[in-house]
Amino acid sequence: MGLADRRQPGQLKREPSARRRLLSRQRAEGSQKSGRKINRGSFIMRSLLVLALAVTFVAAMAGSSKPKEYVCYRAAGKIVIDGKLDEPSWRDAPATDKFVDIEGDIRPHPRFTTRAKMLWDDQYFYIGADLEEPHVWATLTKRDSVIFHDNDFEVFIDPNGDRDEYYELEINALNTAWDLFLPKPYIDGGKAQNSWDIAGLKTAVEVTGTLNDTTDLDKGWSVEMAIPWKALAEYAHKPAPPKDGDQWRINFSRVEWRHEIVDGKYSKISNTKEDNWVWSPQGVIDMHRPEMWGYVRFSTIVNLR
Ligand SMILES: [Ca+2]
Ligand SMILES: [Ca+2]
Ligand SMILES: [Ca+2]
Ligand SMILES: [Ca+2]
Question: Which of 82, 172, 204, 237 has its CA 20 to 30 A from that of 12?
């Protein structure tokens, strides 16, 4: 999801509808009481009460999108980047909460489960993800293609959490990567630098099922990545590798398109919007709001059973 503008129209449409729901609720509350004789004082009191309820409602909505948190432990031994998250360190690494809709709890729960894990050592920041998916398919094979045009898994990293100078990495089930650097978010006039590559990046995908085969149902796919600290250090303005207890801002997203099968091949249903499922809800259909991302706290503890 590199392009913010493809999501902003949806956001603009939805916000007024939330306001409409609130207003109609207030009107409904008012009409239930319209039969009673009321004096001016109680009308003002009731208005204040409605206002207080509205403020509480808005505060509750804001509270529901509190950024997620994750403790990233050190890896014990070698992590082989083969797409299989079967090393002991992965086995014992905590899984994130299940991903939710990018807008949070106001939208339906994702149709398929997604969870991520993180690990680190002196050389790499490791990210693993499991994506439930009955139809694993992908088409893009060229590095730095617009990968979210396929179903994908996406990583966003802002080491010092200042909203500027952050990294994005997207990958599809063919293990094609799109890595880019954002000097600042699109809404602040930022322009993506696709030519920025993560030097030494290692990624792999494991499909549990069959890729691009429409005749069966799959279990899903998993992603395994090793991102060199050396590459992340470039615009980190923080130690990379991190120190014990350091916190970075990070979020993960998964783009999922509705498909149909045409002549035995997967194809996107035209004029349908993609689903965006994320770890830490953004509240709006835009991943490029780094202030909404989750927190990863790095620990020097090796967390093995
Ligand atoms: Ca592995
Ligand atoms: Ca930054
Ligand atoms: Ca690139
Ligand atoms: Ca298949």
Answer: 172
Ligand at shortest distance from the CA of 142: 3
For residue 136, the CA-to-ligand 3 centroid distance in Å is 24
Distance, CA of 124 to CA of 301 (rounded, Å): 16
Question: Topology of 68-302 in CATH?
Answer: Immunoglobulin-like (2.60.40)
Long-range CB contacts (within 8 A, 24+) of 256-260: 256/110, 256/111, 256/112, 256/151, 257/150, 257/151, 259/135, 259/137
Ligand nearest to the CA of 170: 3
Q: 204 and 216 in contact (C-beta within 8 Å)?
A: no
Which 3 state secondary structure label does DSSP give 81? coil
Q: Rounded to a whole number, what is the largest CA-CA distance in the chain?
A: 76
CA 220 to chain centre: 18
pLDDT in tens, 195-223: 999 999 999 999 999 999 999 999 999 99
Closest ligand to residue 138's CA: 4
State which residues have CB under 5 angstroms from ligand 1, the bound ion. Answer: 80, 82, 84
Cα of 264 to ligand 4 centre, how many Å?
Answer: 12
Give residue-wise pLDDT tens across range 82-121. Answer: 999 999 999 999 999 999 999 999 999 999 999 999 999 9
Q: Are 170 and 2 in contact (CB under 8 A)?
A: yes
With left for phi above 0 and alpha for psi between -120 and 50, is residue 13 left, alpha or beta? alpha
Where are the chain's structural domains?
A: 6-59, 68-302
Per-residue pLDDT at 44: 53
pLDDT digits (tens, 9 = 90+) for 140-165: 999 999 999 999 999 999 999 999 99
Nearest partner of 74 among 305, 300, 256, judged by Cα:
300
